Amino acid sequence: MKLPELKEKLKSKYIVRVVAGVLTIALVGTGIGATAVFAEKNSTAVTAEADSTTGSSKDADDIADKLMDSVSLKDNDADKDESVYLISDANGNVNKTIVVDHLKNKDKKDTLEDASNLSDIENVKGKEKFTQSGDKLTWQAGGKDIYYQGTATEEPPVTQKVTYYLDGKEISPEDLAGKSGKVKIRFDYTNTTSYTETVNGEKQTVSVPFAAITGLVLGDGFENIEVTNGKAEVSDSSSVVLGYALPGLKDSLGIKDKDLDGDVNIPEYMEMTADVENFSMPAAMTFVVNASDYVSTDGIDTSDLDDMINDLKDASTQLQDGSKTLAEGTDTLADGLSTLQSKLGTFASGVGTLKSGLKTYTDGVSTLSGGLNTLGNSTGALVSGADKLNDGAKSLKAGITSVDAGVDSVQENVNKLNGAAAQISTGASDLDTKAQALAQGASDLNDGVEKLASTVQGMPETVKSSINDTLKQLSSFVPVLIVAGYDNTLAQTGVTVDNVDKVTTFAKEKEAEIKEIIARSATKNAYGYNELPDKSKSEVDKTYNKAMEGLYQGQGAVMVYTQINQTVSSEQSQNQVKELTEGASSLKENTAKFQKEGTATLATGTSALATGTSALASGLAPLKEGTKKLVAGSNSLAEGMDSLVNSVPTLTSGIKQLVDGSNTLVANNAQLNSGASQLADGTNQIVSGVDQLTTGSKTLSEGAHTLADGMVQFNEEGINKILDAYNGDLKPFTNKLQAVIDAGEEYQTYSAIADGQTGSVKFIYKLASIDAKADSDK
Q1: Which of 192, 204, 247, 552 has the most Cβ atoms closer than 10 angstroms to its Cβ?
Q2: 54 φ, ψ to 5°?
Q3: For a pLDDT cut of 70, what percent of the chain falls above it?
């Protein structure tokens, strides 16, 4: 996968899918334990006949309470747990708001400080008293938790509008009661909150991330039920619809529908359609929670990603600078070798001249020896010969001095060459270090992607395990079911995700037998009721209904688990995870290959260059020593010739000694000529080696420039595109998501909260039921 494709996967699909999935799990899979509530249950039912007086409204209230309990908040550590009950008509208009607050006395204090703007406050679970000063409440708690309720008029943070249609035309709920036809019910939710959060120095205006769950209990006669943004559970005795929405989330994140794939949805409404005979809706509830209570702010912390991006940027810059330094060093090397090559030509020419001059010199020495033998017989000829010899000695001195200067020039250039080779070696070492850092960064990215893919794949089993753990609370009801005729294997398995539907159906079918078993029991049952031999029918019904509540809760949770499992297990989801992991793995392999092969080749070349320059420097040392000796000898020879010319009057007496010395000099002519030939041969080898070194340095220079150009291109087309994606599309998205969660954490209460307290709040919208008599017009 190429880098631009990886960026698109992150921006358009994967992160949006994870956000939607986490929030959906948070609001639906929150646990299935029933909680006690304190709210009025006398909402007015809409009926087909206004003067109807039946028990259907009371039955609907009982069913609605079960639905409400089945979607309860998990335990939290807040100091104040608030439940807001909004009693509404069938269209969603709120008629009365009742607030129930639970003050948790964690330290068993005698008094609890609280704040509240509610009216008609009363203790609903004890006799503890309170005093009030403005919004400040002081409860005489006596070490106990406080449960109280009151009324409010303030608008809730999420409002809902319910619209009904019959055969494609809008209709009021009053007129719809008892009718038949194609019915559509639509719930539209509006998030009215607005928070301004500062994330990474930027201000973001977002809404609190509320999640809305709506449950409908439908009457008989509903067929072909279809739900948008939800699911329906149909049985012989009743039908239940569960829908969900995340109002305001798309606007807060700046997401449009076109940005999402077809299988990714962040819903803002719920809609149900069905073919109906004699329409009725015994119960309708909407449950609204703050989704931030279930999303860890650590989950989208971008600080580690910021550090990684900055490290990547620094490493790229250093790598680019290092390749530029290497190119400049190879240019310097090439220039030095070119200068050395030109100077060696002059040096070789001088060595040739030296060889030729030495040959002439040895020939002259032979002639000199013969002449000296004659000199003894002719002093006049001796004077003339001495003058010529003096001139020849001066020419020899000048030639040898020129050779010595040439050797010094060669030595200086070799020293420069050694320095350039050391610079290249250092640059190659730095390049290897940066390449290792780049390879490690790619490896860390690959490990992170693999961990993320593993977490997503294991999500369904985690949800399933959570549901099974909660269903264990029904273990005390298992013996009753077995006595009523259920398979004995239930004693080993208990109620689980795999059998909760079957157990629920059995319990409903065997209601009479189960109640009789409960009535015969003289012990305390699993739900805390003391069953006495003379217990009343209402006590038996209460025990049975409480057990059924847990089973209904389990069914609702299984519906959610099935939907999550289908989403995660879909072929498209699997392919997307696979593409992401393959892209990270490819990036890891390519950077590792560059670090292993490219830098190793460069290190080998620079090592060979250093070895060659060192050998050249070593070879020049004996050459320099030889030229020094030649210079010293020529100086001595010149001085001797001057003394000879000046001492001609006395020279005659020493002619014999000179003749003897010249004979000795002639004897050394062969050795001198041999040394000159060896010097010439060595000079030719140096010239040839420098030619090869010059050719190699040009190749190295071209390769270094290619590497420098390649690093510039990699930085522009690779690293900069990653930075553009992170700072352009991806990072603003994560910033907005962080702002949404921050806003959710700030919203902790509907009424009020004391300084230093933490709060948790949920909203329960209870709509009026719609009842229809069996003999109503259709």
Answers
A1: 247
A2: -125, 175
A3: 71
